[in-house]
Amino acid sequence: MRIPVIAAAITLACAAGLLNSPVATATPVGTVESVAPLSPAATLPGSVNSARILYSSTTAGDAPTTASAAVYFPPGQPPEGGWPVIAWAHGTVGLGDGCAYSVAGPGAVERDWAYLGTWLQQGYAIVAADYAGLGTPGEHPYLNGVVEAHNVVDAVRAATGYYPSLAEKWVVVGQSQGGGAAVYTARYATEFGGPDLDYRGAVGTGVPAYIEDVLTLLGPNVPPVKLSPHTTGYALYILNGLRTTYPELNIESFLTDAGRSWLAKAREDCLVPLGDELAAEGVVLGSLFSRPLSQIPDLHGLLTRYLGLPETGYDKPLFMGQGLRDTDVLTPETLRFAAVLKANGQPVQLHTYPDDHSGTVNASLPDSIPFVRDLFA
Questions:
Q1: What is the pLDDT of residues 342-368, one digit of tens each?
Q2: 197, 168 in Cβ contact below 8 A?
Q3: Which residues pair with 270 in a beta bridge?
Q4: Cα–Cα distance for residue pair 80/103, rounded to 1 Å
Q5: Which of 124, 178, 201, 240 has the most other CB atoms within 10 Å of its CB?
Q6: Integer angstrom CA distances of residue 256 from 130, 285, 289, 291
Q7: CA dist., res. 374 & res. 341, Å (int)
């Protein structure tokens, strides 16, 4: 509870004129700024005393920001030492504040509540970070892996520092966008968390890998055919993420008038309604570009630094679950990424399932539950 007290003291000092405003930005990351009840839509069935927290973190350019998270507790008395923590890194919901997990709940309600409910029944508390710019001021730098890792780690730091019933031992579990966030968190958790947190390992399903290799091809009439609505929506979200992280690129200048209109719409619309509108309008992604993205100097290197998954540096076990019928991510590339990790001597386990992107989430539980149990042993 020491960090919230420090933050409150800084706030009071600023209000009293004893400290000038720049000091307020020095609030330690992972500090709880406020706690409020969750909406019914964002409340995990079966959880108790659940809450939405606002906490200090960082966003693009390592700038300070306020992020939000949902915290779910199992029923009953916590075990000695507190509830072990599952940090849930959610999949793509959209970029608008109203899309945030702690505001609107999951996009795939039945799937995610079944999945998180299973972890809750196993005796884990759950800390579900929204990521910077979702549900709080500022833009969301979609798929910016380092930012997502900071947000997840800082959410765990904030929750465990605020709630005495939570243990400091934790793992990260994520799907899709969150699968990538879980991998990035796995790479940086020990570094970002420091000695105050006890990071044990990670689970990622539907992990998007090597998408930087495909994004470099985007431009006028590339791709020339209509893709799935979600795939086009993901691309628009990525372009927005690049715009937020690298404003100097002037991403809008690579787009047609229609492209700029869809880019602006994607900043506000959640994934499902955006996909529905893209499908209804028959939007072809290649028709939204006025010039190729390859005109950006060192485009592949920039994209790799932005969203390319780290191939080394993992210090705790990593579980990857991939559906062989998954078309939301590039399944062959995800399998290649797992093979690269293995070749690099990283502590990765790959499990495959005869399922699609969404179906793999719960299909992986018979394997991931004992994996996580062993991490906490």
A1: 999 999 999 999 999 999 999 999 999
A2: yes
A3: 94
A4: 32
A5: 178
A6: 31, 11, 5, 9
A7: 21
d(CA 141, CA 245): 6
- 263-313, pLDDT tens digit by residue? 999 999 999 999 999 999 999 999 999 999 999 999 999 999 999 999 999
* Tokens found for residue 22: 């720049």
Dist CA 183 CA 177 (whole Å): 10
* pLDDT at position 26: 66
Parallel/antiparallel/unpaired status of strands 64-73 and 48-58: antiparallel
Strands 125-129 and 48-58: unpaired
Q: In whole angstroms, give the CA distance from residue 335 to residue 356.
A: 14
Nearest one of 170, 207, 160, 222 to 323, comparing CA atoms:
207
Q: What is the sign of the dihedral through the CA atoms of 232, 288, 260 and 283?
A: negative
114 sits in the region (left: phi over 0; alpha: psi -120 to 50; else beta) called: alpha
Rounded Cα distance between 137 and 325, Å, is: 37
- Positive or negative, the CA dihedral 234, 86, 102, 186 is negative
Other C-beta atoms closer than 10 Å to the C-beta of 231 total 17
Query: What local confidence, expressed as pLDDT, does residue 331 receive?
Result: 98
Give the number of other CB atoms < 10 A from CB of residue 39.
Answer: 13
Instruction: Encode the chain in three state secondary structure.
Output: CHHHHHHHHHHHHHHCCCCCHHHHCCCCCCCEEEEECCCHHHCCCCCEEEEEEEEEEECHHHCEEEEEEEEEECCCCCCCCCEEEEEEECCCCECCHHHCHHHHCCCCHHHHHHHHHHHHHCCCEEEEECCCCCCCCCCCCCCCHHHHHHHHHHHHHHHHHHCCCEEEEEEEEEECHHHHHHHHHHHHHHHHHHHHCEEEEEEEECCCCCCHHHHCCCECCECCCCCCHHHHHHHHHHHHHHHHHCHHHCHHHHECHHHHHHHHHHCCCEHHHHHHHHHHHCCCHHHHECCCHHHCCCHHHHHHHHHCCCCCCCCCCEEEEEECCCCCCCHHHHHHHHHHHHHCCCCEEEEEECCCCCHHHHHCHHHHHHHHHHHCC
Give residue-wise pLDDT tens across range 142-154.
Answer: 999 999 999 999 9
